[in-house]
Every structure is written in structure tokens, then in C-alpha cells.
Design a protein that fits this description.
The chain is 78% helix and 0% strand. It is an all-alpha fold. Helix 1 packs antiparallel against helix 2 and helix 2 runs antiparallel to helix 3.
């Protein structure tokens, strides 16, 4: 039987993978992917805690996080496409050399 502790360990592992991805990536697209992994880790934790306590609040929060993540992806990918068309790369080092 899967316990709450198992879900929270899975969530912590996923969040750690996402955090390492955010800290180590040089590509903006992979940075967005790592952020999505972190958000999904939080969703797993919210849903598991909600199920454990028999309250729907955690699942509602997870639903709103999914909606916010979807809008973040839509806006972020649009900005990435514009940036790629302008600069020809999605490398984070090119952001440091922005000029007005």
C-alpha cells in the first residue's frame, strides 16, 4: 500500500530534479521544463495531502497551479519564439548581453 510518506518522498525527488535543472541549465526552453517539473512536484504533494486528510482544498490548489502553469507556458513560449527569431539562440548567456 502506498502511504502519504511515499508520495511526499516522490514529490521531494521531483522538486529536487526540477531545482537542479533550474540551477544548471543554460537553455531557456529547458529552464521552463525544469520549472514545470517543480510545479508538478508541488501538485503531487498537494493532492496527496488532500487525499490523506480527506479534504478537497489541496486538490483545488493543484488545479489552480495547473491552470497558472498552462498560462505561464503559453506566454513563456511566445516570448521564447520572439527571442529566438531575434537572436537565433535560446542561450541564457545571450540574455546577459542585452542592449537597449
Amino acid at each position: 500500500m502506498v502511504t502519504l510518506n511515499d508520495y511526499l518522498i516522490l514529490s521531494a525527488i521531483l522538486f529536487s530534479i526540477g531545482l537542479i535543472g533550474v540551477l544548471r541549465r543554460k537553455n531557456l526552453l529547458l529552464l521552463f521544463f525544469a520549472t514545470e517539473i517543480m510545479l508538478n512536484a508541488v501538485n503531487v504533494a498537494f493532492a496527496a495531502i488532500s487525499k490523506f486528510y480527506g479534504d478537497l482544498s489541496g486538490q483545488m490548489f493543484a488545479f489552480f497551479i495547473i491552470a497558472i502553469a498552462a498560462s505561464e507556458v503559453a506566454v513563456g513560449l511566445g516570448l521564447l519564439i520572439v527571442w529566438y527569431k531575434k537572436k537565433g539562440t535560446l542561450d541564457l548567456d545571450s540574455l546577459a548581453t542585452m542592449k537597449g
